[in-house]
Specification:
By secondary structure, the protein is α+β, with helices and mostly antiparallel strands. Helix content is 46%, strand content 22%. α5 (146-181) runs antiparallel to α6, α7 (233-250) packs parallel to α8 (270-286) and α8 runs antiparallel to α11 (346-356).
Length: 380
């Protein structure tokens, strides 16, 4: 009779244990990413640039109606489904991105669905590069922003319609008020003249408010077209100062401007620069006491930036309000308490305009000692 003896089990080596741990870790990573792909509502893709192979998560078929057997695994299929009017712009954007050192990018375009209609998508992606910086792989997501685009368009149309309907009667009120004040419609008493002046001022303020709301809406909806051109900034600043000079003179406020030869030739959006400076000057005049006020305007080149400063000796901005001074419709408490009218849109508009062109805006202020605003804009 043969007695069978079990041989002792051979323990795995440390190398085998290490391989097993790596395999488990890899499996867990794959499972985790599969869960992410399933959980997200974004359309995710992975593009191998060398082979042009492309993979998508199931959201592409679920959201855009493509059948499961649709051949969606190539770069050519993706490009063919971008709207023809957007394809060249997307291609240009990709070439510029690949040539840069940036690893992240985002762009918007229209993407064709299975039924032939198009959806607006926000494409956010990340690229991996080789040692020389050449792109190897893109991982990205498409987020359907069609509904947001439609809401923005409806909002824009509504604001434009309402503002037009409001501006027309307000302009008529202002014109007739000025005609009464000038005696063109007959003689009026001093009391009547005061009431007419208040009516005219109110209509002018409302027209300015409508214009500010329209400008804010254009910037927020991406409809503000930046037009950089060669200009003499000193001349632009002097035009703005001359325009507000009557307001300053009425309050006996001294306006001064320090022109700088380095600002004679700069490449800026002239309309935007004048709008920014006009808002800063009107604010400075509004919140500077009558009779003893002074406002200094200066500009200079600092490297590739144009630095504009507007300094006043007005009421200043309280410390508690400084963190919110660029918020929409926000006004500092000491500004609200004085007998001046404001909308709280001027500084907000300046902030969004400056950021639109990649600039910066900041200030120094102390209550009762005045405020200095600084605006740095790209000058080339």
């Amino acid at each position: 009779m043969t007695v069978r003896q079990d041989l002792p089990q051979k323990k795995p080596s440390s190398h085998q244990r290490h391989i097993s741990q790596l395999e488990r870790a890899l499996q867990e990573t794959v499972e985790r990413y599969e869960l992410v792909f399933k959980a997200t509502h974004d359309i995710l893709y992975d593009l191998d640039i060398q082979s042009s192979a492309m993979s998508w998560n199931s959201e592409l078929c679920d959201r855009f109606g493509y059948p499961a057997n649709e051949p969606i695994n190539t770069l050519e299929w993706w490009i063919a489904h971008i709207h023809p009017d957007d394809a060249l712009e997307v291609e240009k954007h990709l070439y510029e991105w690949f040539a840069s050192t940036e690893n992240t990018s985002q762009t918007e375009y229209r993407f064709r669905k299975a039924n032939g209609t198009y959806s607006y998508v926000l494409d956010r992606c990340f690229v991996t590069r080789d040692a020389e910086g050449a792109p190897l792989r893109i991982i990205g997501s498409l987020f359907d922003i069609t509904e947001q685009r439609e809401l923005d368009r409806a909002k824009d149309e509504f604001i434009s319609l309402v503002s037009h309907q409001l501006r027309t009667p307000l302009t008529i009120i202002r014109v007739y008020g000025e005609m009464f004040a000038d005696g063109l419609l007959g003689q009026i008493t001093k009391l009547q003249a005061r009431h007419i002046a208040r009516m005219t001022d109110a209509s002018i303020r409302l027209i300015k408010l409508i214009d500010d709301i329209l400008d804010v809406s254009r910037v927020e909806l991406g409809h503000y077209a930046v037009r950089r051109e060669l200009a003499n900034f000193n001349q632009l600043a002097q035009i703005c100062i001359d325009q507000v000079a009557p307001l300053a003179s009425a309050k006996q406020i001294v306006l001064s401007f320090a022109a700088d030869p380095s600002c004679n030739v700069v490449r800026v959006d002239s309309t935007m620069v004048m709008q920014i400076l006009d808002n800063l000057l009107v604010n400075a005049i509004r919140y500077t006491p009558a009779g003893e006020g002074s406002i200094q305007v200066a500009c200079r080149r600092e490297g590739e930036e144009l630095l504009l400063t507007v300094a006043d000796n007005g009421i200043g901005i309280p410390k508690a309000d400084q963190g919110r001074i660029f918020d929409r419709f926000y006004r500092a408490h000491n500004a609200v308490n004085i007998e001046e009218h404001g909308t709280g849109l001027g500084l907000y508009l300046i902030n969004v305009l400056v950021k639109t062109v990649g600039g910066r805006v900041w200030f120094d202020s102390a209550p009762g000692q005045g405020t200095t605003f600084y605006v740095a804009l790209p000058a080339d």
